[in-house]
Design brief:
Elements (H helix, E strand, L loop, with lengths): L3 H13 L2 H22 L5 H17 L1 H14 L3 E5 L2 H14 L4 E4 L3 H5 L2 H7 L3 E4 L2 H9 L15 H12 L7 H18 L2 E4 L3 E3 L4 E6 L3 H7 L3 E7 L3 E2 L5 H13 L6 E5 L13 E7 L3 H5 L15 H5 L1 H6 L10 H12 L1 H4 L11 H5 L6 H14 L5 H14 L2 H6 L2 H12 L17 H8 L5
Length: about 450
């Protein structure tokens, strides 16, 4: 049976040499880079804003046991219900119970990575409940039977021609339809679904402790429609999304939008504090917040690595990462791809199966540089590698290989014992199929640097 790590190596090699993929991603990320540069230029003291965000999230994670019950109490005061879920199975079971109790058959969903994490769509389909994605990018990848490619831009890997072809095949739109025409068609198809849906399911960008509210940011208005028309609203949220106060949104909203898309502020920013009140004209009759752990407390227990939970899911590290830009989002085989996915997935889904993601990095540090809450991402990658070794999860061949390499590198005598010719032979013999599969192997000089130095600086006789 092929392991997840072996699949990753095969998929990443195929994708890295897919020129069409490279062209689309370079174009889309190029547009993102230009927009973000404009957006960041409007923040007076960017480093100070990042530090402030880091400190707020640090304080929250150190006091999570106090701040989550505060949110729960404040949310319940306004008639909302909070459900704690230890894992994906528990979360799905609770959602199904709510839907079956209401005899719900159709669900509209706004964009939510945490529902991708628990594989909610597949679970609901298995239980004969229709679950429809209403974010345009998510809707497109759902039509294709794919997973989101990116945590912010689900269909980033597709060109407008790819999407026009899909809509032509599924809905009979012109093959040369413009993005505006395709969006209009999606709007026509989805509008009816909002009115008919029995329940709306969303994630949340932030949980606000002091008011017992959830904050949702979006650019299309689909989350508002998903939470306004249906009688039931279920929000599935990771426990790390909590912030102390409504006042903190003046920092986190602009930082999320600027780093996510380059906007000063996302188009629609909604704060929801429970079901419809007696004096309100719209909103659901019932509102639930499911607080999901699903491995987050495993990461919280790691004092050196818990800052991975500070992430606000802006996607900036994915767009900056040279590895992600070459191998793409689907290759990671996890909901959270790119650098942030590489540091949190081994703790959420198991170090043994996902340790390889922490090695899928050049350690250039660009991810750390762009992070809006100053997560030391490349250091976290190294700490994951350390943990994998300490837990004995590396193959014996690899362990012995590094032991021999270390011994040789620490001894000048051993370094000079083999000639350059011998070293080149050994490299071509043992590494040609791995390192040299698609590239020329580096050529080691015939004489070592130490030997060349000695010859050059020999005293004249």
């Amino acid at each position: 049976m092929t392991s997840i790590a072996e699949e990753f190596l095969v998929d990443s090699e195929n994708k890295a040499f897919d020129t069409d993929h490279r062209k689309i991603i370079n174009y889309n990320i190029g547009k993102y880079d230009a927009a973000v540069a404009r957006g960041l230029s409007k923040i007076i003291n960017l480093d100070n804003a990042k530090r402030k965000g880091h400190v707020i999230k640090w304080k929250v994670m150190e006091n999570l046991d106090k701040i989550l019950p505060e949110f729960e109490a404040n949310f319940q005061k306004r008639g909302g219900k909070v459900i704690w879920a230890n894992d994906a199975a528990e979360a799905n079971k609770e959602i199904l119970n709510i839907l079956q109790k209401a005899n719900a058959k159709t669900v509209v969903k706004s964009k939510s990575m945490v529902t991708e994490e628990i594989e909610l769509n597949e679970f609901l389909e298995h239980n004969h409940i229709e679950s429809l994605e209403t974010d345009l990018g998510e809707y497109i990848v759902q039509l294709l039977g794919q997973k989101p490619y990116h945590i912010v831009t689900p269909a980033m890997h597709l060109s407008k021609e790819d999407i026009a072809k899909l809509f032509n095949e599924r809905f009979g739109t012109p093959i040369d339809a413009t993005p505006e025409q395709l969006t209009q068609k999606a709007r026509e198809l989805l509008r009816e679904k909002y009115v008919q849906a029995d329940a709306g399911i969303t994630g949340a960008n932030f949980l606000i402790a002091d008011t017992g509210s959830i904050a949702i940011s979006e650019n299309e208005g689909n989350a508002r429609l998903s939470t306004t028309f249906p009688k039931i609203h279920i929000a599935v949220v990771g426990i790390e999304k909590i912030i102390p106060s409504m006042a903190d949104l003046d920092l986190f909203w602009p930082m999320l939008s600027t780093h996510g898309t380059g906007q000063n502020l996302t188009v629609y920013n909604t704060i929801l504090s429970g079901p419809r009140q007696t004096n309100e004209t719209d909103g659901p009759e019932e509102m639930y917040v499911i607080l999901l752990d699903n491995g987050r407390t495993n990461l919280l227990a790691q004092k050196d690595q818990r800052q991975g939970l500070y992430c606000i899911r802006c996607g900036a590290c994915l767009n900056a990462c040279p590895v992600y830009k070459n191998i793409g989002g689907h290759t990671y085989n996890t909901s959270y791809s790119g650098p942030i996915g590489s540091i949190i997935t081994p703790h959420l889904r198991g170090m043994e199966d996902f340790k390889h993601l922490s090695y899928a990095s050049s350690l250039c540090g660009k991810c750390t540089e762009v992070c809006p809450v100053k997560i030391d991402i490349h250091k976290m990658l190294l700490l994951n590698r350390r943990d994998a070794v300490n837990e004995g999860l590396v193959p014996r061949k690899e362990k012995w290989g590094w032991a021999i390499w270390k011994r040789g590198m620490l001894s000048r005598k051993l370094e000079d014992f083999f000639s350059g010719k011998t070293k080149n032979f050994l490299m071509n013999k043992f590494f040609k199929k791995t390192w040299g599969h698609f590239r020329e192997m580096p050529k080691v000089a015939d004489k070592s640097f130490a030997q060349q130095w000695q010859e050059k600086h020999q005293p004249e006789k």
